[in-house]
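request received
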Amino acid sequence: MTEKTFLINKWVLVALVALCWALAASFMTGYYYYEYSDLSSKVKESIITANLGVNYGNGSAIRWFNETKINAGSTLLDLTKLTASVNYTGSLSGASVNAIDGVRSSDGKYWLWWSYSSYGWTFGQVACDRYVVGENETVFWYREVYSANPQPPS
Amino acid sequence: MNTVKIAVIATFCALSIGTDYALIGLPNVKLMDLIVFVGGFLFGPVVGSSIGIFSWLIYGSMNPSGFEPRIWVATMLAETVYGITGGLLRKALGSTGLGSQQFRLSVFFATMGFLPTVLFDLTTNIVYASVYNTPVVVAILVGAPFAVLHEGSNFLIFGVLSVPTIVALRKVVKG
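response:
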């Protein structure tokens, strides 16, 4: 490749910019397709049931709220507020949970959430108020150390 | 490796780490990638890659967003893509004067900021998926808005800043 190839021929630059645009557009198309498919599969009924577990990470017993009835389209934060007292902070990137039932994030332990699927336990990738809970889904709040590789609920 | 190169690596690392912490409030918008790229362009792929590795070695171990060893190693290695790209472009451009054809060069460098970022984001998303037991496709799709933000911001940052930065640094240090 010489300087003349891509600096004198403007179409090489146009092609490169178009490639960047195509990649970005493809990623966002895939994202919205996935979000639409995921959401539409979760809101088939008006009332759904879901299971919520809470591990306080302080030695106390794990609490389970099985077959909790919620409106379709409810988020994990809605489900949690229905079953426990929640203290959270909202931001542009979504809600961050500070405490559940009065047990606060402390000593390097944070409230992280997991979802159970056919792949096993999956780490929550988005804020709890951005995640729509599905029919019969099992989600789990785990107060654990994030900085040392969070482990799935056992 | 001579002392000038060692000093350059140390200075560029300090710059990239400092700017990363300064921009912590803007997720996925950072100057580190540009600094690594410029290091590679001026001093070759080895120096550029070293800046990337050492920057992540420090920033990644004291990352306010959390620490996970496998993701840390992956980001360290993936960051070298900017240094390698910079080093290869230096050879490809040869003795081209960066002062001339500045607009076309800026557009070209913008795309050279975007494309390696796609590789970086794909790599880190794949490692993320394996660490957190998430299907790779889901990790890539769910992470797409963050990836596109990273890629788009690098397109702008590289397009606007790379040519002036390289021109200015060439006057200070003979790469």
